[in-house]
Every structure is written in C-alpha cells, then in structure tokens.
Write a structure and sequence with these properties.
The complex is a heterodimer of chains A (161) and B (1113).
Chain A lengths: L3 E6 L4 E6 L5 H17 L7 E4 L2 E8 L2 E7 L5 H19 L4 H6 L1 H11 E2 L2 E2 L4 H22 L1 H7 L4
Antiparallel strand pairs in A: 1-2, 1-5, 3-4, 4-5, 6-7
Helix pairs in contact in A: 4-5
Chain B lengths: L1 H21 L2 H4 L5 H11 L3 H20 L5 H16 L8 H10 L2 H14 L11 H8 L4 H13 L6 H11 L5 H17 L8 H8 L4 H17 L8 H12 L8 E2 L2 E2 L1 H15 L3 H17 L5 H16 L4 H16 L3 H14 L5 H5 L1 H8 L4 H13 L6 H14 L3 H18 L3 H15 L5 H13 L4 H20 L7 H14 L8 H12 L6 H14 L7 H10 L5 H15 L1 H12 L14 H9 L8 H14 L5 H14 L6 H18 L10 E2 L2 E2 H11 L7 H4 L6 H8 L5 H15 L5 H17 L23 H8 L14 H21 L25 H7 L4 E2 L3 E5 L3 E9 L4 E9 L9 E4 L5 E5 L13 E10 L5 E10 L2 E10 L4 E3 L4 H10 L2 E8 L7 H12 L2 E6 L2 E8 L3 E10 L2 E8 L2 H17 L1
Antiparallel strand pairs in B: 1-2, 3-4, 5-7, 6-7, 7-8, 8-11, 9-12, 10-11, 12-13, 14-17, 15-19, 16-17, 17-18, 18-19
Classes of the chains: A alpha+beta (161), B alpha+beta (1113).
Family (chain B): Belongs to the adaptor complexes large subunit family.
InterPro entries (chain B): Adaptor_Complx_Large_Subunit, AP4_complex_esu, AP4E1_C, ARM-like, ARM-type_fold, Clathrin/coatomer_adapt-like_N
Pfam families (chain B): Adaptin_N (PF01602), AP4E_app_platf (PF14807)
Chain lengths: 161, 1113
C-alpha cells in the first residue's frame, strides 16, 4: 500500500501532499523535509528508488516537478513508477499539456484527480478513460450548479463583467 | 458560456507567467482570484521570514472571515482552498477544520466537494472532529445524486472513525449491489479500508467480497483483490479454494480478454496482473498441490511479457518473485534465473537495482547465481549511486563465508565510513558485528573490526553488540591460550587508542575499553597497573565523558587498585569523587575508598573476579530466604514483580478518569432498589469504585511535579551527559587503515590511470576473493569448514546454576555491593560495580527469567514451570494416559463436541472432536481403517497456523481406544491472538497416501468463563481502556434479561458475575488468561453490549460472536 505521495518543485517547495497513513503533523513535516532534501541531492542518472528508513521511496522528475511516493517493503517499485506516470498522464489530459503552474494554481483539481485514481493508498481505477469520466461528471455538475445559482458572481470574480 | 469561463481559467497561469516577466503584475491582473493573489504573493517573496509574515496575515484574515456569520458558503469554499494552501506551506490552520466539516455538511455539490477534500487533507483517522462528519456521510450515502454518493464513499475510504463503522456499514453493503460500477468499486474500497482498521467488523460480509470478485466489471473485481491480498496474507490456508479462480482471471488478463481501456501502454491491466501474481505467491507458498495449479499461467506470464517497457519489467519482477515463493518447479526456475539475468545486465539503472534485489532474494537458495553475475556485482560495488552500492553490500552479506569475510567486511566498513544517515549506520554496524563474530579469521582482525564498529556505530548501535562482545571476551571459546591472546590484544589495542591525542570515542566504546582494561590489563607485563590507572583517571577528568561512562571507569580503577603498588592516583580520585554531586559516582567512590582501606577484603574479592569462570551462581537467591521470612513476619508487604506493580499502577491511574460508566452504575442501582426483587448491588459497586478512587488520591501524586532527582542523582546533570553522547564519533586511525586487509582494493583505488586491462585484472582478482567458496562442488565441504569456524567465536553458555538446596559458595555479607557483582561474575559484562547503575540493573533484571528457565531444564521437577505458565505451553500430563471416553466421564465440566468425519478415502476415515478443557482446547483426531488393516504407521501432522499454537500432547495414544485398525492423535490448541475464526489444517499420512483435512475453530472454542466477584469485576472494568459497544435489535418486542444472560452463558461460555436490575455483568477469558468483561443492558427490544478487555481485538471478536448468537436465537 502506498504510504504517501509528495509533489515538490526543484526548489524544494511542496506542491501537493497526500498521506495514506495517519501521522502527526510534526512527523509529516519532518519526513517531508528530509525526503525533499535527500531526493533533490540525487543526481539525474541515479536510480529512481531509495531505501529510506523502513520504507521504499520511488521518485521521478517531470520537468521542474518531482513526484515522490513511499511504498511498503513488499510493493513493486516499477509499477509504482508507472502509477506516477499514469497520474501525470491524467493531469496532462485534464489540463491539456500540464505544467507546474497548472498544479500550483489548481491544486484542488489535482487532488480531485488523484482521489479518483488512488484511493486509500491503492490503485482505484486503472482505466484512464474512466477516471477522466468521473472527474468530468463532477465538474459538469459543478458548472451547472455555478450557472444555475450565481452566474453573475462567477463572472464578476474573474473580471469579465 | 461555461466554455469561455473554462478557457479563461486555464489561460490564467499563462497570463501570470507573462506578468511575472513583464513587471508590476498587480496592476495588470485585477481580476485575479484571492487564491491566485496569495500564491503569486508567496512566489514573489524571497525570504522565509517574509513568507511567514504574509501567511500569518493571510491566516488571521481567513480566521476572521470563516467565523463571521455573514460569510456565505461560496466564500467559505474559497477560504478552504486558501487554508489547504497555507497548510501545505507548513502553517497551522486548525481553526478552519470545523468549518471544513460544516462546508461538507451544508454546501451544494460544488462546495461539498471542496469541504470533503479539505476534511480528508486536514484530519486523520482518530481526530475527534471526524465524529461530526459521520452524519453528513450517512446522509450523502443515502442521496439519490450519484456524485454525492461518490464523494461520501471517497471520504469514507480515506478517513473514517473506527468506532463509527457500524453506522455506515449497512449502507455501504447496499452499495455493493448498485447498478453503477463506480459506486460498487468505491464501496469495495471502503470495505477494504474498514478491513484494515477493524477487520472483525467486516468478518460477516466475506461472502459479499466473493461476489465482488465475480463482478462483471473488471474495475470492481480489481478493487476486491486488495481485500483478498490482505486476507490471504493473514491466513493463506483459508482461501486455497479460490486459487483456481485467481488463475483463471490471470489467464484471461494475460490473454488480452479485458476491454482495451484497461490496457496501459498496450500491456493488458498490469496493476491487476501484479496483484494476482502476489496473491498466487502467497497461496502457493510451501504448498505443492496449489502451486501446481499455477505453473502454466506463470509460464505464460513470463512468455507474454516481452515488450521492452518498464511496465512489462514490473510484471516480470513480480513473476520471478512468485516463482521463487511457491513450491519450486525447475523449468520455471530456469526461466526466472534468465529473467534475473536480464535485469542485472540491463543498462538501465532502475532495472539493475531490481536485479540486485532479486539476486539478494534468491541467493540463499542458489549461491551459484552470484558466480554467474560476479563481474556485474563487482562493478556495482563501486557504483557512483550509493543506493546501488548498498544493495550490493546486502547481497554480499548474504554470501559471506569464512574465506571471503575479510574482503566483504572491508567493503562494508568503507561504505559505513561514508554514511551519515543513522538508520543505515545502525543496520550496517549490526551486520558487520554479526559477520565478525561468526567468521573472524584471527584475533587481530576481530578486535580491529570491532574497534571500527564501536567507533562508528558508537551510541546509536544496538546495545546487544556491546554485551555480546564483552561476553565473548569473558567466556572465550574452547582454546584457553587463544582466549588469552585475544584479551591481550584487546588490551594492547585499547591502550594505543587511548594514547592518541585529541581523539574522541563514543561513550559506549569507552565503556568497553574501561571494562576490558579493568579485567584484563593484568595480562600485560609491560604496562604496570599504575599506568593504566593513570590513563583511566585522565579520561575521568575529561569533560566529554558521560556520568554513566564515569561509573564504568571508576569500576575499572577499583578492579586495578589491589594490583597497584603506589596508590597516589587512586587516592586523588577518591578525594575528588567522594564529594561528587552525582550520587551514583559518589557511592562508587566511597566503595573504592572502603576497599582501598581494607586490603584483605579487596584482595579476596577482586583477585577472584579475574578468574570468574568457576563461580557458582545461586539464581534463586535462596540465601535470602531467612531474611525474607523475617521481613514478612514483621509485617512487610510481600514482594510483587515489576510488571505486577506496573499493572496495578495503571489500573489505579484509570480510576480518576471521568468515565460515564460510573454514572450508569449508580442509576442502575436506583432501578435495582425500585424493583421489588432488586438487589441493591449497584450502589455497592459504585461505592467500591469510589473507595478505590479515594485510595488513589491519598497516595503520592507525582504527575506534574518536576523530576529533579532520579536514581542517578540530580537529573539535569544526566541530560548534559546525554548531550555529550551526540558528539560525532571519531574514527580511530587504527581501524581505518587495516593495511593487510585487502591489497587488491587499495591498489584498485589508486589504479585510476592504469589501462583497461589492468582494471579488468583487478576486478578478476577482487572477484576471486569475494566469491571464493561459492562454487557448488565446493559448497559442501566448505560449509562444513565454515561451520567449524563459526563456532569459534560463538558464545558458550556457561550458566552454572546452583540447586537451591546447596549452600551458596559465594556469599559475603560484609560488602553487599560487590557481592552481587561477584555473584554474577559469570555474566561477563556485568561483573563490576556498575551493576547498580540504573540501565544495567534493568538489563540484569531482564536476564533473570532465562536463568530460571535453565534451572528448570536441569532439574527434574516440572513444577518449576508452573510460574511460567503464560509462556511455556504446559499440557496436562495427567489426562494423557486415560482414554478419551473415560476422560469425559471423569471430568464432567469439560464439554465436548460430537465426533465428525473430517476427511476420508476408500480405506481410512478421519474423524475429530473437540474437548473444551479448562486450560486449552483439546483436539482429538482418530483415524480408522475401513478395511480393518493395520494403521500403526499412520502419522498425523498439523500445519502451523499463525495465531494458533498447536502442541502435540505427550503420550498421545489412547490405549483404550487403540486397536490395530484405528489410531488417535491428540493436540492441545491455544489461540495466541484473538480472531473470530481460525482454520486448522493438516494431513494424515498412511501407507504413502496423504489425506488432507481442515477444520474451523471458532474463538468460542478458546473462551472460558472467568469466575470473579463483582468487586473484581469493577476493578477489571476500570483497568481496561479498550471499549467496544454494540446494540443488537432482537426480534421479540420485549427481551428478558435472564434469557439473554442464559444464552450468553450457554453458547459463549461467559460467566454471569452479577445481575443488577435490567443490567448484567459477565466475564470470560481467552485462554490462557486474557480477560474480557462485558456489561449487558436490556431495553425494550434492544440489547446493548459493552465490552472491555486488555486486548481490543478480543472485544471486537467477541462482540461479533455475540451478535451472531443473539441474532440466530
């Protein structure tokens, strides 16, 4: 089972964090700090897997963003790498050639997508089509709700009126 | 319109980028959302301090907004997103948690979604606010809107309070039949979550899991595999019947029968494949018959995974793992080996790493594999990536033998010197110490290696390493002259180390040195005791020494004092430390003073200690019996062991908790008095608990009082000592430059400029030194040799325990301090004054039981085991010779089940029955021949089960029933950790025929009534913290308490402790002695049960059984 997933930038700024095991805030911060340091210190040609404390860390860099997952001893490292890749594919499809800024400004959307793909640390749905369908459905309902209730304020908010 | 909005939104980040480049962004982007503004603001800042200021500002404005009554839900949603952002940056936004829950509760879809997201990110499983979410979840689960149901299921699968599971469980079970696959899938995952946090709550819906496994949608089926993987991991024998289904599913997946949308980079459903392979690996482990079912599909998986893509390698890796886990088949193993080769030789570093990992995994089964890949392994040993290096060392560690130990340990030490992470150091140091002890080729190498271990591992390493080492020195091995040489060399090496200027050693290392110098420096002719004492004294005066180490040092000086001729330094030491503020040191100094003044005494005591081998230890301390008896007769309280005192303290601590239970008791007392037949015991109980409460308040209350004085004196001092320990351990030059250790490697380091061919040669050379002794033809005799060597440094156990009737030979009341030391002189590391040092004394306490056990073994009286009943399974010897039938007659209290046929074939039949004995469950199997032929060679074996403890009863034959054509076997069974059910399986072996059987054992087979008084019940109740509550609806409109209690008493073997009004108290224990108490209250058509036990799982399981019993009745 996946223990947690972290997304952080080359500068070490956290962009997304999802914890699948209950940990205290202090512990989370400590782990994040140590891991970000360790991963950033590694050279590009090095192995994508780490043994860290009693966990296995799988990380991959996409442009300026690092995706980093912690898995348990008996889990498969390579498939975890593909989980990361599938998540990036999903983001890419949803945002249309995704970049770090998409995730920075729409991190809640990135969370929604992650929750449709992984649930409780396990892969929930492996079909790309199905994940996106679920997200679009929820999004559509949101759009409806937006238009039905307060069409004006939305426009106001983004400065189009 | 919505399209336009969407496009504008996605364009925003791009706009922002332009703004960033183009100058003053704020003026050009007035329409930016508040979140955007915040993010932009944070990104623009340069220092952490500025960021902190900005976020604090943001947080205080958010705080005002969220708590203002005028804030609309829409604004709240926006605030939540900003709060999530602040938390991600590491700032505390806990004031918003309650509003996140409110948003999930009250918002429309759009707001609810953000509310749920915020809740799942902010809170954790045991957060108290989570209880407030339960109602919302229940409501949304019942919603007709699919999106709402999905959201609720998503949040349940992530965080849900364990104790509220019953509130949503029926709703989620319903969703398993939902028409939409997404709902069914999420429901399965929610149940998976429940299984993880409270397995016993979903025990009863196992059949529904099977339905999910057969779901027409592959996604739902895949989700159910998560549950099966866990369940099979815990109890593989219970799911063997599903093997064929899993094999069939895998066959279909591999054959490409799934819809194309499940493919990933044209590989069919890789996640599903890997999950199935893992399950098959667990099912086929040590089970030939089950393994045979899967050989074909594994072969096909290997064959089909040929694409050169990461994901096929992932499948291959899992395949290899499975092939090596199950019952071996040579053809498959060959293919797996080839596959590992592909990984190891791959130019891709990730695959290489996994190849090494796979090698590490299989190398013990097949050491020759290492030879095949030796050059790659050598290359990896000097790989620039430390992770690869470390994995290679792990691999080498597994193939170490007496011939290659020097090279391998040197490689490990090299790596150790470069590592900084504590976790790695602890791990590696342990391995080096283990290898050194097992395979050391000579004394010099051993001591130098251990020096390196102590100086690097120092204060972080496992303390066992230190005590094992000292014990080894003290007890030696079989050759006395070798022993002496080892000790002499250790002394010499430590003196050299101590003579080096400006070097600092870890405290643990100094402790080792001081002990060894104190014990063995007399072996050295060159050095006079005075010189050694002077060195120790110099250390004592150093600031970087902790007080614990100082105690070791003084002890060493004490041992050396009688040998010294001039005592100038000793007197100085006594003078300084008898006024020490540390009481422990001061006491040591006074003892030294005492011994120094009384030469006779010190000679008689300390000269003897050097020759500690033959001291006889009276572990039962029988010489104190008179003293104890005298004490008891004068009214002293009898001794209670440490754990008992602790338990009592714990139970007393609980009394002051404001448990609602006390209230319910007093009210029950009321109803008791009102009813005509009532017995006013309720008030009695509450009175009792109040009394115990009073007792506790009158005792000393230490919580909240600052601890200034401890066992070792003034406590802040100790803390400063602890600070000393954190100093960086210095590597001694001696350990680092082990010149003669490995010429090949040192040359290799310098050989960078040399030609390729010499490098190759170096590699060959290193390979021959690393992989020596691994050739198959060599293995057998080498292993034999290695074994001889491995014994060389292994500890001998030399406990010589006096029988308690003998008079102890070592006993001198004049100095009780040293007395205890001498008495345990054989313990090696504990033989000096510091026994009374708090840490060490706890160690010595821990050792006592083992001594007891030894004495138990040596003495013929089995009664010695009586005290250890909890640990040592103790089958009743009296019942063994009697026949089962007469046993039942003799012991009417023991119930027994009817005999049941568990398996049979044409010639034999096996039947079984249970006898519920007071101390265990006795299982009887009888094998009867149908043809009347002899059965004397029949054998019965039980497979080991994780949570059951099965012991064959001695004298298992039942002569009365024994005929030539039947044979009985008798096993005592206990449940080690509670679970609702367990399966016991095994086989009968009879004339080459193997007959397998399996039986279900329920928790109830191991539950016995616990006969206690109401008062004891009250005490137990208060001492347990694990609550499980359950309300059961009965079919009858009015339930009588008595009928419920009889039901529980008869079907669950609970003991009814008391009845008060409409409430009943019951108690039982899980064998051997885990108590569970329960309170039962009847109200109209409901029975409320409240369980408490020292073991929470027991309460859970028992509640599950109660439910079953009550619902069927």
């Amino acid at each position: 089972m996946m223990q947690f997933m972290l997304l952080f930038s080359r500068q070490g700024k956290l962009r997304l964090q999802k914890w699948y095991v209950p940990l205290s805030d202090k512990e989370k911060k400590k782990i994040t700090r140590e891991l970000v340091q360790t991963v950033l210190a590694r050279k590009p040609k090095m192995c994508s897997f780490l043994e860290w404390r009693d966990l296995k860390i799988v990380y991959k860099r996409y442009a300026s963003l690092y995706f980093c997952c912690a898995i348990e001893d008996q889990d498969n490292e390579l498939i975890t790498l593909e989980i990361i890749h599938r998540y990036v594919e999903l983001l890419d499809k949803y945002f249309g050639s995704v970049c770090e800024l998409d995730i920075i400004f729409n991190f809640e959307k990135a969370y929604f997508i992650l929750d449709e793909f992984l649930l409780g640390g396990e892969v929930q749905e492996t079909s790309k089509k199905n994940v996106l369908k679920a997200i679009e459905q929820a999004d559509l309902l949101q759009e409806d709700a937006k238009e039905a209730e307060t069409p004006r304020s939305v426009l106001e908010e983004i400065g189009l009126t | 319109m919505s399209d336009m909005v969407e496009r504008t939104l996605t364009a925003l980040p791009g706009l922002f980028l332009q703004n960033q480049l183009g100058g003053p962004a704020a003026s050009r982007a007035p329409f930016f959302s508040r979140l955007g503004g915040l993010i932009r603001g944070v990104t623009a800042l340069s220092s952490k301090h500025e960021e902190e200021k900005l976020i604090q500002q943001e947080l205080s404005s958010l705080k005002a907004t969220v708590s203002a009554p005028t804030t609309t839900l829409k604004m709240m949603k926006e605030c939540m997103v900003r709060l999530i952002y602040c938390e991600m940056l590491g700032y505390d936004a806990s004031f918003g948690y309650i509003h996140a829950i409110k948003l999930a509760q009250q918002g429309n879809l759009l707001e609810k979604r953000v509310g749920y997201l915020a809740v799942s990110l902010f809170l954790h499983e045991s957060h108290e606010l989570l209880l407030l979410l339960v109602n919302t979840v229940v409501k949304d689960l019942q919603s007709t809107n699919l999106v709402e149901v999905c959201m609720a299921l998503t949040v349940v699968s992530q965080i849900f309070p364990r104790e509220m599971i019953p509130a949503v469980l029926p709703l989620i079970e319903d969703k398993l039949q939902h028409s939409k696959e997404i709902i069914r899938r999420k429901a399965v995952l929610a149940l998976y979550k429940f299984y993880l946090i409270a397995p016993n709550q979903v025990q009863h819906i196992h059949t529904k899991f099977r339905k999910a496994l057969c779901d027409r949608d592959a996604g739902v089926m895949a989700a159910s595999l998560h549950i099966y993987l866990r369940m099979i991991k815990e109890n593989p024998s219970g799911y063997k019947d599903l093997t064929e289904s899993f094999v069939t599913i895998l066959k279909q997946v591999v054959g490409g029968k799934l819809p194309v949308e499940f493919s990933y980079h044209s590989v069919p459903a890789p996640w599903l494949q890997i999950q199935l392979l893992r399950i098959l690996g667990l099912l086929g482990k040590d089970d030939q018959r089950t393994s045979e079912l899967m050989y074909d599909v594994l072969d096909e998986s290997l064959r089909r995974a040929e694409l050169n893509h990461n994901v096929t390698y992932a499948i291959l890796f899992e395949c290899v793992h499975t092939i090596y886990s199950i019952y071996p088949k040579s053809e498959l193993l060959e293919k797996a080996v080839k596959c590992i080769g592909k990984f190891v030789l791959s130019p891709k570093i990730n695959l290489k790493y996994l190849g090494l990992k796979a090698l590490t995994y299989v190398i013990q089964q097949d050491p020759s594999l290492a030879l095949q890949h030796q050059i790659t392994i050598i290359e990896c040993l000097d790989h620039p990536d430390p992770i690869i290096k470390r994995e290679t060392l792990e691999l080498l560690y597994r193939i170490t033998n007496a011939q290659n130990v020097i090279v391998i340990v040197q490689k490990m030490l090299d790596y150790l010197h470069q590592s900084k992470e504590e976790y790695i150091i602890i791990n590696l140091v342990g391995k080096i110490a283990e290898l050194a002890e097992k395979y050391a080729p000579d004394n010099v190498w051993f001591i130098q290696t251990m020096n390196a271990v102590f100086s690097v591992g120092g204060d972080v390493m496992h303390p066992d390493i230190l005590s094992n080492f000292l014990r080894l020195l003290a007890e030696g091995f079989d050759d006395e002259t070798e022993d002496q040489q080892l000790r002499v060399y250790a002394v010499q090496s430590y003196l050299t180390l101590l003579d080096m200027e400006n070097t600092f050693y870890p405290q643990r290392f100094l402790q080792v040195m001081s002990w060894v110098l104190g014990e063995y420096s007399y072996l050295l002719d060159k050095e006079s005791p005075e010189e050694v004492i002077a060195r120790l004294y110099k250390l004592l005066k150093s600031d970087s020494i902790s007080s614990e180490t100082k105690a070791w040092l003084i002890a060493a000086v004490t041992k050396l004092t009688p040998q010294a001729h001039s005592s100038h330094v000793v007197e100085k030491l006594i003078q300084e430390f008898t006024v020490s503020l540390n009481t422990c040191l001061r006491q040591h100094a006074f003892e030294l003073k005492h011994l120094h003044e009384n030469v006779e005494l010190s000679k008689s005591l300390l000269q003897g200690a050097q020759n500690c081998e033959d001291i006889v230890v009276d572990a039962s301390l029988s010489f104190l019996d008179g003293f104890v008896a005298e004490g008891l007769s004068q009214g002293a309280a009898p001794y209670k062991p440490h754990h008992q005192r602790q338990e009592e303290q714990l139970s007393q601590g609980k009394v002051l908790n404001f448990e609602p239970y006390g209230l319910s008791f007093s009210s029950s007392g009321f109803t008791g008095r009102q009813s005509p037949a009532g017995i006013s015991l309720g008030s009695d109980i509450s009175g009792n608990s109040a009394e115990t409460g009073l007792k506790e308040t009158s005792s000393l209350k230490l919580e909240g009082v600052k601890k200034l004085w401890g066992k070792e004196g003034y406590l802040p001092k100790k803390e400063s000592g602890a600070d000393d320990k954190t100093e960086m351990p210095h590597v001694p030059a001696e350990g680092a430059t082990m010149e003669n250790a490995d010429h090949a490697t040192t040359r290799k380091d310098q050989a960078q400029g040399l030609t390729q061919s010499t490098e190759e040669k170096e590699k060959q050379l290193l390979a021959s030194s690393l992989f020596v002794g691994l050739e198959p033809e060599n293995t057998i005799n080498l292993l034999g040799k290695a074994d001889v060597v491995s014994h060389k440094f292994r500890r001998k156990s030399k406990f010589k325990v006096a029988q308690s009737d003998k008079t102890p030979s070592v006993h001198n009341p004049a100095s009780s301090a040293l007395d205890s030391d001498v008495a345990r002189g054989d313990d090696g590391c504990l033989s000096t004054l510091e026994t009374r040092d708090s840490e060490l004394s706890s160690e010595s306490l821990a050792e006592l039981p083992s001594v007891e056990k030894l004495s138990g073994v040596s003495s013929p009286a089995p009664s010695l085991f009586a005290d250890n009943n909890m640990e040592v399974f103790h089958p009743p010897s009296s019942s063994a010779p009697s026949t089962a039938a007469s046993l039942l007659e003799e012991d009417p209290e023991c119930g027994h089940s009817c005999a049941m046929e568990v398996c049979s074939n044409d010639s034999v039949s096996v039947s079984s029955y249970k006898i519920w004995k007071d101390d265990c469950l006795l299982m009887i199997w009888s094998v009867t021949s149908k043809t009347g032929s002899e059965l004397t060679d029949a054998k019965l074996e039980i497979f080991p089960v994780e949570n059951l403890k099965v012991i064959e009863q001695p004298g298992c034959l039942l002569p009365g029933m024994e005929t030539e054509s039947s044979k009985s076997f008798q096993y005592g069974v206990q449940m080690e950790s509670p679970s609702v059910e367990g399966t016991l399986s095994g086989f009968v072996n009879y004339q080459m025929v193997k007959l397998e059987f399996s039986m279900n054992l329920s928790l109830l087979d191991f539950i016995r009534p616990l006969k206690i008084s109401t008062e004891d019940f009250g005490k137990l109740w208060l001492s347990f913290a694990n609550d499980v509550k359950q309300t059961i609806k009965m079919s009858e409109p009015r339930v009588a308490l008595t009928s419920v209690l009889t039901e529980l008493q008869q079907k669950l073997r609970l003991h009814v402790v008391d009845v008060v009004g409409n409430e009943g108290l019951l108690a039982c224990k899980l064998l051997p002695s885990t108590p569970c108490v329960l309170h039962c209250r009847v109200h109209a058509d409901e029975v409320a049960l409240w369980f408490r036990s020292s073991c929470s799982v027991l309460s859970d399981c028992l509640s599950c059984h109660c439910q079953k019993v009550m619902e069927t009745s």
